[in-house]
Design a protein that fits this description.
The protein is mainly α and 80 residues long. Helix content is 69%, strand content 0%. The longest helix has 29 residues.
Amino acid sequence: LPSVMGLDLEAGWSVGARAAFGALLGAVSLLAGFCWSGFKRRIGTKHSSDLIPEMGGVMDLIDSLLLAGPTALIWYYLAG
């Protein structure tokens, strides 16, 4: 991952590419949250765990990141 962690790749992006990247990550994050909520409804539970009380569990906090992270990495590889 030579240039993924730096700003070298983003410096060459157009405004449209940056907007598309942001819109894609936003949509993917929403999709991940909806999928996790649907899964919880299907199994009949309200919270994914009791580790963090009143927050719905750890998965409810990181479900968006679990799909947005790999999506961003794939975007970087395809753009670079």
